[in-house]
Amino acid sequence: MAKGFPSGVERSELLSNCESELFFSKLRAKVLAHNNVHPNEKLISLSIGDASEPIPQIITSVMEQFAHGLSTREGFSGYTTHHGPESLRTQIVEVLYKGLGVKPSDVFVSDGAKGCLARLMMMFGSAVTMAVPDPTYPVIPQMCNLFGQNVIRLSSKPDGGFFPDLSNAPRTDLIYVCSPNNPTGIAATREQLADLVSFARKNGSIILYDAVYAAFIADGSPKSIYEIPGATEVAIEIGSFSKLAGFTGVRLGWVVVPDSVVFANGKPVVSDYSRVTLLVAPAGASNIAQAGGSACLTQEGIEELMKIIEYYKENARILLNAFASFGLEAHGGLNSPYIWVQIPGRSSDEVCDEWLERAHVLITPGDMFGPSGEGFLRVSAFGHREIILEAVTRLKAIYPPM
Amino acid sequence: MAKGFPSGVERSELLSNCESELFFSKLRAKVLAHNNVHPNEKLISLSIGDASEPIPQIITSVMEQFAHGLSTREGFSGYTTHHGPESLRTQIVEVLYKGLGVKPSDVFVSDGAKGCLARLMMMFGSAVTMAVPDPTYPVIPQMCNLFGQNVIRLSSKPDGGFFPDLSNAPRTDLIYVCSPNNPTGIAATREQLADLVSFARKNGSIILYDAVYAAFIADGSPKSIYEIPGATEVAIEIGSFSKLAGFTGVRLGWVVVPDSVVFANGKPVVSDYSRVTLLVAPAGASNIAQAGGSACLTQEGIEELMKIIEYYKENARILLNAFASFGLEAHGGLNSPYIWVQIPGRSSDEVCDEWLERAHVLITPGDMFGPSGEGFLRVSAFGHREIILEAVTRLKAIYPPM
């Protein structure tokens, strides 16, 4: 019994569906244990998908000017709308969805992809079923649990290109797909996405397409689900400045809800999304972040950002080469900041602990992303170059030259 | 039937509880109609509670420096936590809750009060009942509808000091109270709040105390529910930099969830609030806004902010004097940016339309805040001084000197 004064308020039953710890906490426990045993060893973390490189000055200077402007009568601004400024929504469409049938009114700017996803799921409510890939970012199925939704895991195996196997998949109301995928680092091909759209249309499902790593795609794979004909009628897409522009701390994202995506009763989903957002997040994202987002989407902004994404991808190539030299099969990393390392015959947790103990390098055990992640490690290529190189050097102690 | 491709996804039943329009849309319709008829008259809006005065440079300069720092290796920072930085939480406690039994670990920093409230209600779930004052900010009961909660309206009349009448109030799980109140502009007295805490303790209810206008209190009324003994066991308090510091666009707020507030099963509410926030808003508020919030809470920051609050309160005094000279009884405005004008014998909507048509001044009809708001107008004292003075001049055409 806690020390508090007992209220008569019953705890929501849905909360008991969310008891299990998120991987953040499990990893934190590993780090604490490591640091207790090795207080003098500097841990290298390749475990979190967080931007590490500074934001280009061409973008921060616009945020500086905007912040300064807030101290003047002319530059001060208060509440923006729950929809986000039309100018920024238009830029998002022009720069990222040109010719794909997306309209500025379909776009809602927010403080990040996670908030958009939470509001979508809050809106869909507890009666829907949702399919998620296995492995997947663990917050997604946990969020389904929180909203009382039934979750079906679709196994995504190496021999299927890590894309969910739709041939045996049951119909669900919603299908969540992330591409380039977290954790596998693989971008879905045009054929896979065409199959997905066709599957959704056949089943009357709505796709929640998480494209927050789209800027990393380099091989011609679709950067948006709307590159697939017919997708604007069955897919909602989530985007973010977090990985595009290093805005993980600044906070800015968006969701595209085309007005041709409709409920069974024929009502457009976008009307309800707008209503829910107006109620729970009426003021939108920080106006300073919005000014920064607008600077990102200028031609110069995009050019500078692509240099940083190229930097992370060079990190990924260095890691991929190292894993190859260690004799480890590794996936992803070409269209993504994540590498999915195969460790046949061993458990993810065991290898994680070994790397931590012997190389003081932390990665994320694959099983934290679902049962199909067992036997894999997720390695993040975010980080300063010298850290990546040092990690490789340290891992050579475990994997000596063959 | 919409033009879209019909999915098989059923619309959540809860959404049909939220059909009614928010007052924003009703007011927007009035403005559009006005502007059609009077295209050359410049409308003065005293209808929205949005900051109008620039943010002190002592605060914006810190945000500028922080934004600039993001372009450097040393100054770059990524994800913050769902809890918010400990330094800022400590400052909030030291500056705003000193000696009141609140700990930094009780405080969660977020992008605003509305988001905190939405997560609280999401956490409490659909089985709880909630009491709200009548009149109240209309988003609150609509949010209850969205989350499927049963709402009881507690009439707050002039002869009860506009505080909810608890003598006949039924027990509810949650009791939402906003002080200084939106829309009446009245701050609850120490006695009223002591009664509220006692009522909650007796009934095993949890108070959701909305104190976003607390900085306007000048007459010794409590600025926090935690000034009342025993409140840390039954009350959750929501605060914001929006009205304290003109951050309506910058976005920063917080919620205090003491660990002594517990569910019927004895589990602390704060554990679940933390879990829900970690799932739906894991990255917290914008780091630039957080830097600004920290600057607000320095001694110099607070001094500068209080000058601006004093400016709005001088606006309120000008309006109060005008209403007195018009022979209109007006409440609030002393501890709040809102004035609640009584218009006996006429409907709120009718007088709103008259002021709009004859003076081109927009206010919010009281009935938009609930049935007990009929016969009142909410007048906001936010705005540049010359606008307030011009509004008074225009209204004299309707209320000639007696």
Automatic annotation (TrEMBL), chains A, B:
GO terms for biological process: systemic acquired resistance, salicylic acid mediated signaling pathway. Residues 42-394 form the Aminotransferase class I/classII large domain. It comes from the Eukaryota. Coiled coil: none annotated. Pfam families: Aminotran_1_2. Gene3D superfamilies: Aspartate Aminotransferase, domain 1, Type I PLP-dependent aspartate aminotransferase-like (Major domain). The keyword Nucleotidyltransferase does not apply. Keywords: Aminotransferase, Pyridoxal phosphate, Transferase. InterPro entries: Aminotransferase_I/II_large (IPR004839), DapL/ALD1 (IPR019942), PyrdxlP-dep_Trfase (IPR015424), PyrdxlP-dep_Trfase_major (IPR015421), PyrdxlP-dep_Trfase_small (IPR015422). One of its GO terms (molecular function) is pyridoxal phosphate binding. Its cofactor is pyridoxal 5'-phosphate. Belongs to the class-I pyridoxal-phosphate-dependent aminotransferase family. LL-diaminopimelate aminotransferase subfamily. PANTHER family: AMINOTRANSFERASE. This is Aminotransferase class I/classII large domain-containing protein. It comes from Adiantum capillus-veneris (Maidenhair fern).
